[in-house]
């Protein structure tokens, strides 16, 4: 009886395997426009039937056209494409599966063969550049492990990466460059205690080796920035954690990265991307202010700027505009990962930004910052689990680009109108006198201020006119 049960179990598993295998996309899906060569390599277009996306204006009903993003349009003396500097995130766009904590993958793109081979990595890279060219943008972002598979040894892993990066260099041509590159120090089990904050020396050493290589390939590809995202640089409980030890190691790691950047002649900006939680309970780069404090404490302010991700800001209890503005006023705004979250969901959902009001506030800060160059606006965003058509990849980016372009237009009109700026100025107008100037200059001591308080008596407090500010703002959306 036991033997029969075992035989039935094996048969069920074999049938299940065959069904799953037959449902996978073929190496070259002819019905999707691909053509197989003798080597099995994809020939022809990855996105047949998708034209190059062009600007058609707000009245257009063409879902594969820009309604607000007009790349060549000049705003405040600069082309829209130079204000926005859009970038495609390779990991979400070409490695996103639709899987979530509660469900299996839902996306099976026609060019995928179900493997994570170097050959498959090269195919994805070709799809990436066709996608970028059809969108009409000229930047992309990547994690090292997303674009090339990890091998059995560091040497094999680096060889895999070199092979894929060589193709990427060729496909980039003269016009396309990475907005930034980074090392993925959070997915592999070796990084379960973190990378540069790991309790294991071997992991710290491995992480340094991985970052070294990722910086080299970013430099080789002409990357404009390099990002550090501490996906597991934090703790679950202080009961088993030496926080001071880990923070000091993190600082030493970043100091070594700065030294290596200079050694290889990489001119790009080093960026730190704040995030409050998920996966660790408390991460050391919680928000813009926390990260700034860390940089100041360790003397690294002059070497790093911040890559503000909108969804991370909201997870930390702020708005995206708050963290962007915090970074800006401290001279640390380097890049923005343009996405959003869902207030009814407790994790990082990485949705495309579609809130025009939020986009307008973000672009107000970008204009005040004089732009983001050499940073930009990276779409660290993914399709919803239920969106499974290839066309959806384009629609999502078009909506995101149009939202930020509309935000830029609105912000420019708000600044030109001046009503909101005047309201803010009037709110603080009581300081526009001799005593206010002394306070600003740091020359007003408490004795002086006490005399004024006695002389003036109980102060009058004016209205903040918040509803008026909101009325003005809404009238420009």
Name some characteristics of this structure:
10% strand; 46% helix; alpha/beta; 477 residues; two-stranded antiparallel sheet
- Apparent shape: globular
Strand elements, count: 14
Average pLDDT works out at: 91
Point out poorly predicted stretches: 1-34
The helical percent reads: 40-55%
Strand content: 5-15%
Q: How big is the Rg?
A: 26 Å
**Biggest pleated-sheet summary:** 8 strands, parallel
Distance between the termini: 73 Å
Tell me the structural class: alpha/beta
Strand order of the largest sheet: 7-6-5-14-13-12-10-8
- Number of helical segments with 4 or more residues: 17
Give a description of the structure:
The chain has about 475 residues and is an alpha/beta fold. It contains 17 helices and 14 strands. The protein has helices at about 1-25, 80-85, 90-95, 120-135, 145, 155-170, 200-220, 245-265, 290-295, 310-315, 320-330, 355-370, 390-415, 420-425, 435-440, 445-455, 465-475, and strands at about 35, 40-45, 75, 80, 85-90, 140-145, 175-180, 225-230, 235, 270, 280-285, 305-310, 335, 375-380. The strands form four sheets. It has an eight-stranded parallel beta sheet. A two-stranded antiparallel sheet has the order 1-2. Strands 3-4 form a two-stranded antiparallel sheet. It starts with a helix and ends with a helix. Mean pLDDT is about 90; it is low at about 1-35.
